[in-house]
Amino acid sequence: MISELKAATPVDSKLSMYEAEAKAVAEHIAKFDTLDYVVFTQQQWKRLHESHSKDVIVHWPDGHQTEGIEKHIEDLKGMFVYAPDTRIKVHTVKFGWESGRLLLESWKGLSPGQCPPLMARRSSRPESRSTSRCAP
């Protein structure tokens, strides 16, 4: 009996690469959904390292930039002082690519004039360094 062996074609290889990338993007977006809907909204700051590196760089809507997860946590805690019910309920846009993802999120809180109404977060090289970017 002769068995036929099918050689992998370039199409099979490209499909496998696409499927692996799509899976990684879906996992990264799910991580950020958890970050915003659970960790941020419920102020579970000890879990922030699950999605942020120690050397995270954050770009805020007013144009200032901070570095480091501890400073970022300090700033996030401050948001709940002036708007204790701050929360993120929806990511209005979600997409990703091989080395990152972009999410647009709608914020709600008691002081909507002071809360950023829309924040865009871009993260590149998710395994080594996260970058959050806010847009007014």
Overview in brief:
The chain has 136 residues and is an alpha+beta fold. It is built from two helices and six strands; from the N terminus they run H-E-E-H-E-E-E-E. The model is unreliable at 112-136 (pLDDT under 50).
Question: What report would you give on this structure?
Answer:
With 136 residues, the chain is an alpha+beta fold. The chain has a single domain (10-133), classed as Nuclear Transport Factor 2, Chain: A (Roll), CATH 3.10.450. Helices cover 33% and strands 26% of the residues. It is built from two helices and six strands. The chain has helices at 10-40, 69-82, and strands at 57-59, 65-67, 87-97, 100-108, 118-124, 131-133. The chain has a three-stranded mixed β-sheet, with helices on one face. The longest helix has 31 residues, at 10-40. The protein is elongated and about 65 Å long. The chain starts with 9 loop residues before the first helix and ends with a strand. Mean pLDDT is 74; it is low at 112-136.
Based on the structure, what is the oligomeric state of the protein chains?
single chain
Number of spatially distinct domains: 1
User: Any idea what the CATH architecture is?
Assistant: Roll
What is the number of helical segments per DSSP (H or I, 4+ residues)? 2
Q: How many strand units?
A: 6
Give the N-to-C terminal Cα separation: 69 Å
- Structural class, please? alpha+beta
Question: Which characteristics define this entry?
Answer:
Nuclear Transport Factor 2, Chain: A, 3-stranded mixed sheet, 3-stranded antiparallel sheet, 2 helices, 26% strand
List the helices and strands and how they pair.
Elements: H1 10-40, E1 57-59, E2 65-67, H2 69-82, E3 87-97, E4 100-108, E5 118-124, E6 131-133
Parallel strand pairs: 1-6
Antiparallel strand pairs: 1-2, 3-4, 4-5
